[in-house]
Amino acid sequence: MAQVTAVTPVAKMVGSNRVIQGKGIVYPLGDAELDAEEEKDLRRSIVRQALEALKTEV
Amino acid sequence: MKLTLAIHEVSDAKLGSGTTLDGGVLTVDADELREAILEDRRIESVDIEVANPGQPCRIGVVFDILEPRAKEPGTGSDFPGLLGPMAMAGQGTTHVLRGTALTVVDAQQEPGIASKMMEMHGEAAVNSPYGNLHHVVVVPHMIPGTPRHVELNALRLASARATVFLGSAGVGQEADSTEEFELDGPSTNREDVPRIAYIGQIHGHQMVVEEDERILYGSNTEGMVPVTLHPNEWMDGAVVCSYWVMRVETYFYQNHPIIRELYRRHEVGEINFVGTVATVAASLEADRNRNCLLAAHQAKWNLNADGVVLTKYGGGAPHVDMGETARICEALGMKTVVQVSDSSGDRRAESAMLFNYPEVDAIVYGGGGDIAWDVEPVERVIAGSPAVAQALAQMTQIPAQALCGVTNQQGASVVRAVVY
After folding, report:
1. How far apart are the first and last CA of chain B?
2. pTM flag (> 0.90)
3. CA–CA separation, B251 vs B4, rounded Å?
4. What gap in Å lies between CA B161 and CA B32, rounded to an integer?
5. Nearest CA among B160, B175, B185, B176 for reference residue B2
């Protein structure tokens, strides 16, 4: 399992071993400051990171 | 810096002709108060009622509760940056109508999990620190079509205006007692007792602030880094609640239980109260790391604290930020005590904790998040719309989360969670 979260201290506290930094609590996979295309790039990069993490043995 | 509170004890409140304070009886002239609130042209009309303790009455949805107060003319600004001109809060004399509350109803808010109410009689009322107060309730109605953030801004301004209007009834009257709050600041030298600071959150940014929201001296705290405040500033109008009023009301900034207790212990020579830091919980990781680090380091290097008391604002994410700040404080050699709220749905202490740092082991566990009281329907409801009034009137159970003050992040809860 890989966990995307904006509050990484909690993920670490409960023992998640694949923690992916999300953007913000109100939008872990987005960013209201960005336009739609940039936001899509951001989302793609976070999801890719999560998929990479899933492939990694821990 | 010295703040004098001129305390006027109020034993009864009623509507009447002319706004006066006479022999402990507050008479509120609804027309005069209405006129003061309608100075704001965004507000079309205002309902004004009085709700006294022990009488069957429900109030909702509550926007905020404040203590009626007004500065003695010439000694400072009322809610500087929000209502009055910018000035340092916490100096001069402030008149206080003790025993009363100004309660503002948000007419656009539906009853629900995030909404708050007051019950004025019975067991539920006994369990709220607001249950024994005489409430002057104002229900502003906006001009139709007013955008939500403008409505909220108008409610905030109306709350300050009405509070000062009522508090002014004490100006020119002899006070029943006075309370003085004076600290010289971090330079105070008392070598034999611990130096104690307070770090309090004033908003949690997972709830996005409006551009025209007013929290700290009129600022919306967006982009804010932790700032040292004199304890008096908290209690004298520098800080009001954000629109996200989860387990906080401005009343307990004005009567901040933790700041008052630290003052009391300072005065008896038990501690050296060296000051406070106001901070915010973050939505973004980078902001969290920055705020937690800077808040702790301000307490260490600006206030030279040996120990720190910490509180949060709101719910879970601020809880994490508070825990992280406490962890850094401990790493810097400062002892900490944190206040957490009872938010354990399954009634297990473990469920209430979002952090588990062995060094952060002094934890005050306040409030009663998952209790509820059975109540009878009431006839009298003060609400913003007939639909809300009907919903409140017919309630047969009041969950603690819906009742103002049962769980209070500022330390005012009269209910305490106990593990047994």
Report:
1. 44
2. yes
3. 17
4. 12
5. B185
Query: How high is the pLDDT of residue B113?
Result: 63
Strand blocks (E) in B221-325: 227-229, 272-281, 307-311
The pLDDT of residue B333 is 98
- Which pLDDT tens digit goes with each residue over B289-347? 999 999 999 999 999 999 999 999 988 889 999 999 999 999 999 999 999 886 666 77
The 10s digit of each residue's pLDDT in B25-83 is: 999 999 999 999 999 999 999 999 999 999 999 999 999 999 999 999 999 999 999 99
Task: Count CB-CB contacts under 10 A for residue B376.
Answer: 9
Per-residue confidence (pLDDT) for residue B316, from 0 to 100: 84
Angstrom distance (rounded) from CA B62 to CA A20: 39
> Residue B324: its chain A contacts at CB < 8 A?
9
Q: Which candidate from B317, B324, B355 shows the least CB-CB separation from A25?
A: B317
Q: What are the residues of chain B with a beta carbon less than 8 Å away from any beta carbon of chain A?
A: 205-206, 208, 283-285, 288, 317, 320, 323-324, 354-356
Q: What does the alpha-carbon distance between residue B392 and residue B381 come to, in Å, rounded to a whole number?
A: 7
> Are A25 and B285 an interchain contact pair (Cβ–Cβ within 8 Å)?
no
In chain B, what's the furthest Cα-to-Cα distance?
A: 62
Q: B402 vs A27, B111, B395, CA distance in Å?
A: 27, 9, 12
What is the three-class DSSP state of B260?
A: helix
Q: What was the ipTM of the complex prediction?
A: 0.81
- Report the alpha-carbon distance of residue B306 to residue B180 in Å, rounded: 25
Confidence band (pLDDT; 50, 70, 90) for A49? very high
Q: Which residue of A has its CA nearest to B322?
A: A9
